[in-house]
């Protein structure tokens, strides 16, 4: 048997196995499954649309039940908010191991419910059960739905040549937060640096980033697309945006924020590349050139750092990455995220 890579399927695998077989074709589906799309957009009529996203939720042992539950909510809500439509309804399925007891479920579920309430989301359906063979940190799957005006909905197709590319917060946000809680002694950081790295767990979300950017306006008035850089990191997210928009992105790598904490965490993980690794919490924004400064100001008002890293240009879905020495590399396919193998090793070897 051929060993499959961990994490998301590669784009060519999705194109070969999944995307040709999507059930019935329905004309109201404006945006369906595709590389780089965080959400589906379905027309409801009368100028209204439904945004839909699905993702797993998990229990990260180092974070504990409550923190893991909150982050799982924000993983889903972050994707939904990139559509420009606020989330409203959730359908959740728990596939629990036999050893996940009622007390643990009660703590996780109450924390999740409290976070859904804070996000304005009602849980409307789901499934909960214990099943043999479900011994994993991934304990379920959720679908989040929002309904809003079609004129406010964003898709990658709205981005155009000349649009400015903005990245919030920096690289390896979630990977850093996991490392700082799971094996803090391995990070080459002083006490203040470790505290900053641990605090990143509260930034494993782009909900606030999206809200701040969307205040400026959409389309010609400001933001043309939003994309959540999760698995595959910032460079993977930029490449996904290129694929989804059908344009090329020209980006200067040295402009992408990279904190000392992220460097230390990725080194502790065995020297994984911080630009290509798990960065839930980083938002990629494209904006009309005349409105880019206003987007950055709106982010700053919420205490969110943002950096102008490049622009969109005519092309066919590639990332043109300029390094600090001026060399330009053309990237057409993503690098597999090194996080999953590194995390699996950390668990297997019981790093502390």
Automatic annotation (TrEMBL):
Instruction: Give the top-rank taxon of the lineage listed in the UniProt record for this protein.
Output: Bacteria
Which SUPFAM superfamilies is this protein grouped with?
Answer: PurM C-terminal domain-like (SSF56042), PurM N-terminal domain-like (SSF55326)
Q: Which residues form the PurM-like C-terminal domain?
A: 160-316
In the record, biological process GO terms are: protein maturation
- Gene3D superfamilies registered for this protein in UniProt: PurM-like C-terminal domain (3.90.650.10), PurM-like, N-terminal domain (3.30.1330.10)
Domain (PurM-like N-terminal) spans: 36-135
Q: Supply the Pfam families for this chain.
A: AIRS (PF00586), AIRS_C (PF02769)
Q: Which InterPro entries match?
A: HypE, PurM-like_C_dom, PurM-like_C_sf, PurM-like_N, PurM-like_N_sf
Assigned protein family: Belongs to the HypE family.
From the Swiss-Prot or TrEMBL record, give the protein name: AIR synthase
């Amino acid at each position: 048997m051929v060993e499959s890579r961990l994490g998301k399927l590669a784009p060519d695998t999705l194109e070969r196995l999944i995307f040709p077989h999507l059930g019935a074709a329905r004309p109201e589906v404006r945006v369906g499954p595709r590389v780089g799309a965080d959400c589906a957009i379905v027309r409801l009529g009368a100028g209204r649309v439904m945004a839909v996203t699905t993702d797993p939720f998990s229990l990260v042992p180092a974070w504990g039940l409550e923190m893991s539950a909150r982050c799982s909510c924000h993983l889903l809500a972050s994707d939904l908010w990139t559509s420009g439509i606020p989330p409203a309804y959730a359908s959740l399925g728990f596939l629990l191991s036999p050893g996940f007891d009622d007390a643990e479920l009660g703590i996780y579920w109450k924390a999740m419910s409290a976070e859904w309430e804070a996000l304005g989301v009602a849980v409307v359906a789901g499934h909960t059960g214990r099943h043999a063979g479900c011994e994993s940190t991934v304990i379920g799957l959720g679908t989040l739905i929002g309904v809003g005006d079609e004129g406010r909905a964003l898709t990658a197709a709205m981005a155009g040549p000349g649009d400015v590319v903005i990245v919030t917060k920096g690289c390896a946000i979630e990977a850093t937060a996991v490392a700082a809680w799971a094996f803090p002694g391995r990070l080459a950081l002083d006490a203040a640096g470790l505290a900053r790295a641990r605090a990143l767990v509260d930034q494993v979300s782009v909900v606030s980033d999206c809200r701040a950017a969307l205040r400026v306006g959409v389309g010609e008035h400001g933001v043309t697309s939003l994309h959540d850089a999760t698995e595959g990191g910032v460079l993977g997210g930029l490449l996904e945006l290129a694929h989804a928009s059908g344009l090329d992105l020209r980006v200067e790598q040295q402009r992408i924020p990279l904190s000392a904490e992220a460097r230390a965490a990725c080194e502790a993980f065995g020297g994984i590349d911080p630009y290509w690794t798990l960065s839930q919490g980083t938002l990629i924004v494209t904006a009309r050139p005349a409105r880019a400064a206003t987007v950055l100001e709106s982010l700053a008002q919420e205490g969110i750092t943002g950096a102008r890293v490049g622009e969109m240009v005519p092309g066919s879905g590639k990332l043109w990455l300029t390094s600090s020495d001026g060399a330009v590399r053309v990237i057409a396919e993503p690098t597999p995220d090194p996080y999953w193998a590194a995390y699996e090793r950390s668990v297997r070897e019981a790093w502390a």
